[in-house]
Design a protein that fits this description.
Elements (H helix, E strand, L loop, with lengths): L17 E5 L4 H16 L8 E6 L5 H15 L13 H8 L2 E5 L5 H14 L4 E5 L6 H10 L11 E6 L6 H14 L5 E4 L6 H12 L1 H6 L5 E9 L8 H5 L2 H19 L8 H13 L6 H6 L1 E7 L1 E3 L2 E3 L17 E7 L9 E7 L6 E8 L19 E7 L3 E10 L5 E10 H4 L9 H9 L8 H20 L4 E4 L6 H8 L10
Parallel strand pairs: 1-2, 1-4, 2-3, 4-5, 5-6, 7-12, 8-17
Antiparallel strand pairs: 7-13, 8-11, 9-10, 11-12, 13-14, 14-15, 15-16
This protein binds 6-O-phosphono-beta-D-glucopyranose (BG6).
Function: Catalyzes the oxidation of glucose 6-phosphate to 6-phosphogluconolactone.
Pathway: Carbohydrate degradation; pentose phosphate pathway; D-ribulose 5-phosphate from D-glucose 6-phosphate (oxidative stage): step 1/3
InterPro entries: G6P_DH, G6P_DH_AS, G6P_DH_C, G6P_DH_NAD-bd, NAD(P)-bd_dom_sf
């Protein structure tokens, strides 16, 4: 049975706003943003006068644009907005659709921005959010033009906000340049940098579990924790994204952003309040405390892998070099394993091992907090050596939940021990509504809560911590291989074995 504790006030509908979706015909808008807006509308969290304005270069009428979105959601992503026979509700969609319109325009043409100004003037509210669901090369260009057109000027009655989503640069230097460009035309309070991992319930729950259950704090330090493993294993390959992935690779794609968000949630100090400044300040501090490896240390503490041809369930899988738009002699990594150390009082001496890869055996995103072994003196005559270490496993996806893997006495006259599990599975406690993972993020942006968004220093600290790995690999871009459908290269096992540890089994 669950007893629900709510915040004192029930969530109110977001204020009336004009929400501009740049890149209106792209996948992000169709697959995630519009379904998320529909779900927010279903839950009564949007103002009846929310205006949604698609902005893109193709010509299409307002009605045809709304219809296209509706058709796409019905045919491709119905499970994100409904269950069983309760898919997209026509009446609910109609309510949202009456506020949908479209501006045809080139992102680099000033007249596009005059058209946006006219939309705001006609909307009855000065509040506007500009969501850049575009290729990253447009971020600076669009923002600069929004600034010159005066569209980012706020008044006490009207907010102006910009949403962008990773990649925020491709290394420390480009990330700093992007932040400088954004901050030239608006303040940090107007910028909402999305990391979609922070939209996941299981990620948000790390903070709640840690800071609302005092027992966690008792062991959450280097006295009791031996090491931490953070894994994001994917079964998908690079699919149609070869040309993007070729110059990105697994490190840039996943580590300074998603994996460091998980690391920050696990490792940060308690914030003084659950507000944007306090939470983001603690996150910036802990990522800033990651030890800067020298180039030699970075090389020794990292493994780059690339999938070669393999199979899953008897079906052949391409190697990365055979994927579309990938060079046949590419050395881009599709897998990375790293060891990082956090130099602060809580974590000194506790390694954090991170790994992520495409085309692995299973999809599994998890954090494993591995406890130090107990002094086993009293169990000397048992099969102590065969016992697994004890740990807490936070399962981000799939099979969301949290499990302690502990030791217990196996029933019987002799003293034998066994590994047992104490667990919490979300599905046993909560009815999960269909969702995209963007609902909270969009709602928070419309209501002005930046807690789940990244500040400039969060981004730059992340790049600063991975820069030694990028530098090391620039000198030596050799890559280990692993067969598609397997769990990464042998060298990744060695990274832990040489420290006397092993990766937690996937799945
Ligand atoms: C994206 C990466 O940011 O995150 C993708 O660009 C990756 O390559 C994806 O597949 C993983 O997200 P999730 O939510 O499926 O773990």
């Amino acid at each position: 049975m669950t007893h629900t504790i709510r915040r004192k006030s029930k969530a109110e509908p977001a204020p009336p706003t004009t929400l501009f979706l740049f890149g209106a015909h792209g996948d992000l808008v169709k697959r995630l943003l519009m379904p998320a807006l529909y779900n927010l509308s279903r839950d009564g969290l949007l103002d009846d006068n929310l205006r949604i304005v698609g902005v893109d270069h193709n010509a299409i009428t307002d009605d045809a644009f709304a219809q296209k979105l509706e058709d796409f959601i019905r045919s491709e992503v119905a499970a994100k907005v409904g269950k069983g026979d309760q898919m997209l509700d026509p009446a609910l969609w109609a309510k949202l659709a009456k506020g949908i319109s479209y501006v045809q325009g080139d992102f680099l043409d000033d007249s596009t921005y005059s058209a946006l100004a006219a939309k705001i003037a006609a909307s009855g509210t000065g509040n506007a959010v500009f969501y850049l669901a575009t290729a990253p090369r447009f971020f600076s260009e669009v923002v600069r033009r929004l600034g010159s057109a005066g569209l980012l000027e706020e008044t006490p009655e009207a907010f102006r906000r910009v949403v962008i989503e990773k990649p925020f640069g491709s290394d420390l230097q480009t990330a700093e340049a992007l932040n400088a460009c954004l901050l030239k035309v608006m303040t940090e309070k107007q910028i909402y940098r999305i990391d979609h991992y922070l939209g996941k319930e299981t990620v948000q729950n790390i903070l709640v579990s840690r800071f609302s259950n005092s027992l966690f704090e008792a062991f959450w330090n280097n006295h009791y924790i031996d090491h931490v493993q953070i894994t994001a294993a994917e079964t998908v390959g690079v699919e149609t994204r070869g040309s993007f992935y070729e110059h990105t690779g697994a490190l840039r794609d996943m580590v300074p952003n998603h994996l460091f968000q998980l690391l920050a949630m696990v490792a940060m100090e308690p914030p003084a309040a659950f507000g944007a400044d306090a939470v983001r300040g603690e996150k910036a501090k802990v990522v800033g405390a990651i030890r800067p490896w020298t180039v030699e240390e970075a090389r020794a503490n990292s493994v780059r892998g690339q999938y070669s041809a393999g199979e899953r369930d008897g079906q052949p899988l391409n190697g990365y070099r055979e994927e579309p738009n990938v060079s046949p002699d590419s050395t881009t990594e599709t897998y990375v394993a790293l060891k990082v150390m956090i130099d602060n009082w809580r974590w000194v001496g506790v390694p954090f091992y991170l790994r992520t890869g495409k085309r692995m055996s299973v999809r599994d995103t998890e954090i494993v907090i591995c406890f130090k072994p107990a002094p086993y003196a009293q169990f000397r005559d048992t099969e102590v050596d065969e016992l697994q270490p004890t740990y807490l496993r936070i399962q981000i996806q799939p099979n969301e939940g949290m499990w302690f893997d502990l030791l217990a006495k196996r029933p019987g006259p002799t003293l034998n021990m066994a590994n047992i599990e104490l667990g919490f599975a979300y599905k046993d406690f909560f009815e999960m509504q269909p969702s995209t993972g963007y609902e909270t993020l969009i709602y928070d942006c419309l209501t002005g809560d930046q807690t789940l968004f990244q500040r400039a220093d969060n981004i730059e600290n992340g790049w600063r911590a991975v820069q030694p790995f990028l530098d090391a690999w620039q000198e030596d871009a050799s890559v280990e291989t692993y067969a598609a459908g397997e769990d990464g290269p042998k060298a990744a096992e060695d990274l832990l074995t040489r420290d006397g540890r092993v990766w937690h089994g996937l799945g």
